[in-house]
Amino acid sequence: MQLLSSNTLAPFIISASLLLTACGGGGSSSGDNNSNTGSTSPQWVAGQFANYSTLANQCSVPLTQKLWLRSWSDDTYLWYDEIIDRDPAPYSVAEYFELLKTDELSDTGNLKDNFHFSMPTAEWELLNGSGASVGYGMTLNLRNASAGVSRQVTVAFNEPNTPASNAGISRGAIIVSVDGVSVANANDSDSIDTLNAGLFPDATGKQTVFTVRDLNAQTDRTVTLSAGTIVSTPVQNTKTIQTTNGKVGYLQFNSHIATAEKGLYDAMTLLSNAQVDDLVLDIRYNGGGLLALASQLGYMIAGDNATTNRVFEQTSFNNKYPNINPVTREALSPMPFISESIGFNTSLLRSGLSLPTLNLKRVFVLTTPGTCSASEALMNALRGINIEVIQLGDTTCGKPYGFYPTSNCATTYFTIQFKGVNDKGFGEYSDGFIPSANPTLDSEVPGCVLEDDLGHALGDTNERLLSAALFYRNNNRCPATASALARAPARESFVDPGFMLQDTRNQNVLKNNRILTPLALEQ
């Protein structure tokens, strides 16, 4: 199950290498050794950092695991010199990792690093490879989570052939209660635990009784769902919309995971064969993933002439590594727009196939605060080669950074290691891309501020964001509803689930939020 919220942006990531790297160690930091004289095991000495490869996978000694995290962070973290060098002894491994990041603020006063987390390696590998996770197959939108305000949990979309979809629970349905506990009014720890246990199951087979109010229904109904292993379908709803002035392609793209390559290839082939005149790319729930997939999609949208010898993204690491990648040890070079299949999953699509192209000069993108990382890099890269990007919806999450998921002792860690810029050298959108009728900043994109419309199916031409894109296409301006719904900032439609983050299942809630952005090599 996935939960959308505004302030849990940390889980939203995008990946920035062609292939996943899960290394146990490799680089070295300043200093040759952090062992005390005469000691048989590594010890913490302020300011001294052992080569983290010498500390890797020593899983029976928690202190060594913490020292590995410390040296790895000092070597590869983008803002390594802003980490306070603390003695790890008083902390658990998980607690210590949470401290190995900057506490500094951005120029706009927000935390500089909102993207620091870890998860079990087995879970990460399953999620990265196929988008698989335990749940019911529905992604949720949470509003009004503040204390004293009636909460509302609404289904944003579901995956096909899952417990939720098979029970007829679809976009717009409101979750009224979970195992008898009211979602709107729960305020004690036992009730909150029940909500979390039901909304975020951590084992297959768990049965939960939901009371739901379907979209436009006058009465509630009760359904019992059994949690299973849900495999994400990242590319959905591809269609051609015939208008009075040409064909418009529509594509719902939910995640840059490995299995999306075949879905994107098929979808863009369909739209290319239909000779669409414009594209509406719905990435409102796409939190990121493999940057290489974003590069491929950028190529398929813009075509060969627009992308030849142009940069999709140029990455840079911390000042210890001006010329090489500290993880791969390769010389830094720009990522191009990729014109062939990579074959992430050769059973679905082999490598080396020429990708289909639409050869468009503009693209309409539908966004929310759940639009993050690789999705933002795609927008930035297209703007960098003068493809007109028109943004309908909400301000994106703001993540021009990336990382290589790195495993040690059965846990995979994600820490910011690089930042990226487009062909024009722009990459400062840490507060997100902002739709604007009159853009004046580089991070402001021509378009319309609109709230997500949970009252219509995705791909329905009456759905607010898609309808606005079609209106803008015909009139070169926002519909009247856009100005009425404009908000500043435009993030409040996704409210931090504080009632869920206050209990012992905090990490599980965050874990399920991350499913929104199935990762991969991170950007």
UniProtKB/TrEMBL annotation:
The superkingdom of the source organism is Bacteria
Entry keyword Lipid metabolism = no
Give a yes or no for keyword Cell membrane in this entry: no
Annotated Tail specific protease domain residues: 247-399
The alphabetical list of record keywords is: Signal
Leader sequence segment: 1-22
Gene3D superfamilies attached to this UniProt entry: 2-enoyl-CoA Hydratase, Chain A, domain 1, 2.30.42.10, 3.30.750.170
Q: Under which name does UniProt file this protein?
A: S41 family peptidase
